[in-house]
Amino acid sequence: MVRATGQRAAAAARGYVEGRYANAGYANVRVCLLIPTHALPPLSYRVPARLRRGVSAGSLVVAPLSGRSRLGVVLGEEPEPDRELEDLYSVAEGLSVPPELLEACRWVGESAAVSLPTVLRAALPPGIDAGRFVVTRPVEGWPWAKGDAVSRAALKRALGPDGLKEAEEEGRVLLSPTIPPRKTVEWAVVRGAAEPDLRRAPRQRQLFEHLKERGGALPAAALLEEAGAGRAVLRELARRGAVRLARRPEPPPLLSTAGGSEKGSFEADASRAVGRGGAFVWRVPTKDEPEAIAAIARAVVGEGDQALILAPEKASVERLARHLRRALPLGHTVAAYHSGLGRDRAAVFEAARRGEVDVIVGTRAAALLPLARPGAFCLLDEHDESHRAEPGYEGIPIHARDVAIARGRAEGAVVICLSPTPSLRLFAAPRRGASGVRELPARPATEWPAVRIVDMRGSGAVLSSTLVDTCRRLVDGGGRAGVVVDRLGYASAVSCNRCGAVRRCPECDLPLALHDRARSLVCSGCGHREARDAPCPECGSDRLSPAGIAVERVREELSSALGRPVGLVTAGRRELEDAAVVVGTARCVLQETWDAVLVPDVDAALHGGGIGAAERSFRLVYRAAESARGVLLIQTRTPEHYVLGAAASDDYESFAAAEAPRLRAAGYPPFAHLATVVLSGPRRTVFGAVESRLRPGLGEGVEVSDPVPVAGTGGPASWKVLLRSRDRRAVARAAGRAARLAAGTRGMEARILVDPEEV
DNA sequence: AGCACGCCGACT
DNA sequence: GTCGGCGTGCTC
User: Fold this and answer.
1) Which of A166, A260, A417, A683 is the most exposed place for a label (fewest CB within 10 A)?
2) How far apart are the C-alpha atoms of A472 and A491, rounded to whole Å?
3) Å between A705 CA and B12 C1'?
4) Where are the beta strands (DSSP E) in A419-528?
5) Whole-prediction pTM value?
């Protein structure tokens, strides 16, 4: 795919926005109805002559299904229908999906085993009201006139279910989806040629002059605020006929750029990548990512194109949007897009689709936001798993990096994934010619702490004297230390003092963790709770010892060793966060920088199990080093581990070189691909479906595991099967079959994750 | 025989 | 997703 130049993309975008795309004039089309199920394939419809001009791939249309109006998206032409087709009812003007984005949506649906309607929904304006009808040919006696907008509920109430269906079939009412209307705000507008005599009304005169200076029109609230006047003054001006008060739609929340032109060292690489196109991975220290993204955005807006930048969380989206506003040249606009935007969300969506905003910063909810002039798709912190929705929750369970790469390919835009520690599934992927992911020159960290690795072999203590001494010296000198412990509670496991048995959950057999200031035992799997002094089921003893280091225990021991209060920061709790020493999870503690960062139990991550353990630990140590101004101290019983050595010396390359062969040997991405399929339902149904329907039809080179039971959380029983193949498309196809199989089997549900982080 | 309920498949 | 058809099984 050749990258569209700015001008070409812009011309195409205008054609698309104004609805004069190369009108296909299809006689028959395939339509994906927006019913979120795997069970319903795309259906074919005839395009009545009056709609031919407005229907092309990506059009949002209204089509009948069993006599009822449904929304759907045109996928393309149906060249040879093998049956008598129904007519499309109508086309929803101005709500279509750009055809290149439609292409990317189809890829996303297929490769993540997500139903196409679900994917398309994310590429359409949020909150489309699909329950609104317009009365086109009223019948005598109806309470509505031609042109009235009526809700489905009101029509059903008045006409009855059959009456409504009949009215739809006869074309008397027409489903007309709309985007939620914009809230209106009051504007004050100078009346043309108004020359009011305001000599004896100084306050009115001052307000009137101010309004004229500001271009003659302003939202009333902003005008009164700026001019320091009261409502009464404005009302009086309106009464005199000097200004007109009118309600206008509230503008979308676009930030105008402030004209920062400070150019750093990222400019040359960024504009070269934007000029060449393709997909890139760029290793950049965390603190420099915003500046690198600003350089990319400057290059993109300089071409007259739009950039879509995806960040893992709402907070980082907002931060980055503010940064870009300051860092881009004057005359451009920036907007944030995420699920917390409420009514503004549809307005930003529309501004992006129409090309009225140059840079959009969003969470994964923005991954399929249509752009009129797509120039770049860019990912902040590519390694972050928040870029993927949890399966079964809102959003599409595919990593935003994969969506961005598919979009870049389909829409002819550059894709740049930034992270100091990119995922190996991206970084270690074979660089195959022009379609592969290339690397931009990596930037080493400019500051790196002194790293001390403390060997804990032969010690039963939680904290070494080295750690405590380092901490004490630092605090005495007025410094601050952050202590990273990625386990909540007091201890991650406990064992019986008499017989040594590890206490396990009676429901799901996981080790019980000690919580609530060491008072109760909690199962992290199902939430089961019991008192810590309950007798041991093995020997009856009520005495136990904590095992496994968790935040509260480190906080307590450090506090007593130092003889001073220690703070705590986790996602759910913040206490004494200004203390000189603060313990907490990596996500919270490493948000800020510290004179020293201490990692008392890196082994929990290093040997925590799962194929991703090495990658997670490398990232943990690397991020800890980035947050440490002076010292990084790590306690471990495996001080010679290659992950520690590589991370401590800012050597991602050698980590990747050592880790990639392990992934290859174990058959993990990017060298092989997997999908987890969790099937829930009666045991016989699930096993029957796997053995007699899923296993027999697997493609070449796809393996499927036997179902293994999944610890239930109250719902129906579940089993997990694993699909694996060298070929990514083969796994995706098999996962898609599993999804359709489950959709067509009553009583069985499937949750599917293609290339999950962990199996 | 007549009816209620639930499963299955069609719907373009 | 939604509806209707039809089978099973129960009641008058």
Assistant:
1) A683
2) 24
3) 37
4) 437-440, 450-455, 481-484, 491-496, 512-515, 520-523
5) 0.89
What φ, ψ does residue A643 adopt, rounded to 5°? -65, -40
Nearest nt by C1' to A44 Cα: B12
**DSSP 3-state assignment of A6?**
helix
User: What class does CATH assign to A450-488+547-665?
Assistant: alpha beta
Contacts of A638-644 with CB under 8 Å at 24 or more apart are: A638/A603, A638/A606, A638/A607, A639/A453, A639/A454, A639/A455, A641/A606, A643/A606, A643/A614, A643/A617, A643/A618, A644/A453, A644/A602, A644/A606, A644/A617
- Closest to A739 in 3D by CA, of A104, A102, A112: A112
Give the integer Cα–Cα distance in Å for A624 and A450.
12
Mean pLDDT of chain A: 90
Was domain A6-130 assigned CATH 3.40.1440.60?
A: yes
Q: How many CB atoms lie within 10 A of CB A58?
A: 24
Write the pLDDT tens digit of every residue in A12-56.
Answer: 544 444 444 555 689 999 999 999 889 899 999 999 999 999 999
Does residue A83 approach strand B to less than 7 Å at its CB? yes
Q: How many CA atoms lie within 13 A of A737 on its CB side?
A: 17
CB–CB of A545/A495 below 8 Å?
yes
Q: Extract the tokens encoding A735.
A: 């996962």
Measured CA A705 to C1' B8 distance, in angstroms: 29
Tokens at residue A712, please?
Answer: 């239930």
Q: Indicate if the pLDDT at residue A11 is higher than 80.
A: no
Closest-CA residue to A482 (of A538, A555, A404): A555
Residues A667-689, mean pLDDT to the nearest whole number = 89
Burial of A164 (C-beta count, 10 Å sphere; 0-12/13-18/19+): buried
Question: For residue A714, what pLDDT is reported?
Answer: 64
Query: For A35, how many CA atoms within 13 A lie in the half-sphere containing its CB?
Result: 17
Query: Is the CB of residue A44 inside 7 Å of nucleic acid strand B?
Result: yes
**Residue range A673-754, CATH number:** 3.30.70.2690
The nt closest to A68 (CA vs C1′) is C2
Per the rule left: phi > 0, alpha: psi between -120 and 50, beta: everything else, A32 is: beta
CATH code linked to domain A256-440: 3.40.50.300
C-alpha span between A750 and A741 (Å, rounded): 9
Beta-carbon count within 10 A of A563 CB = 7
Nucleotides of B under 7 A from a protein CB: 7-12
Among A306, A289, A292, A282, which residue's Cα sits nearest to residue A369? A306
Q: What are phi and psi of A364, to 5 degrees?
A: -60, -20
- Specify whether domain A184-251 bears CATH 3.30.300: no
Is the C-beta of residue A35 closer than 7 Å to nucleic acid chain B? no
